[in-house]
Amino acid sequence: MKIRRVEQKDYQRVLDILNKAIEDRIFTALLTTTSMEERKDWFIKHSLPMHPMYVAEIDDHVVGWITLGAFRDGREGFLCTSELSYYIDENYRGQGIGSKLMDTAIEAAKEIGCSNLLAVIFDTNIGSQKLAIKKGFKLWGHLPDVIEIDGKTHGCDYWGLKLEKS
Sheet harboring 116-122: ordered strands across? Predict the structure, then answer.
């Protein structure tokens, strides 16, 4: 497996993985699949040094991705805090890909000077909770029943990690 910065050639595969997660209705509060045109600015933002995106590749095939994104974008006091978002192709889950992507993102966050990382995880997403715990994240907050998908409500947990600069 190879972890590397996202390239333009990966964009459609990244969208395919995201759109599948949206369709599954259990990992993201995004409810409408998206297109390349709608995500153009998002890809541009994640090509910048402050908010990188990484992909995991097996046999030249992108099987997952992770981003360091702005938390509460536009609020300068949060500049030292990044929010992680990550998705793994359903056929490759449970193989350590998320763990390797997370390691890469944590190191990148340290290098760019982040003090805090946040992962916002559905309270029913046990796999992501276990990964967060494995990487040293602590439960910083719980928002009960704040997500509504197809008439069902879900809680949302904020997992945080304090970073020591490299």
Answer: 2-5, 53-58, 61-70, 81-88, 116-122, 152-162, 138-149
DSSP H or E stretch at residue 81:
strand 81-88
Q: Which CATH architecture has domain 2-119?
A: 3-Layer(aba) Sandwich (3.40)
Is 120 exposed, middle or buried, given 0-12, 13-18 or 19+ CB atoms closer than 10 A? middle
CA pair distance 162, 104, nearest whole angstrom: 16
| Longest CA pairwise span in the chain (Å) | 45
- CA-to-CA separations, 123 to 10, 27, 69, 85, 145, in angstroms, rounded: 30, 10, 21, 15, 9
Percent of the chain, pLDDT > 70? 99
Backbone angles phi, psi at 107, to 5 degrees: -65, -40
pTM of the model: 0.94
Q: What is the pLDDT of residue 164?
A: 84
Domain extent listing, the chain? 2-119
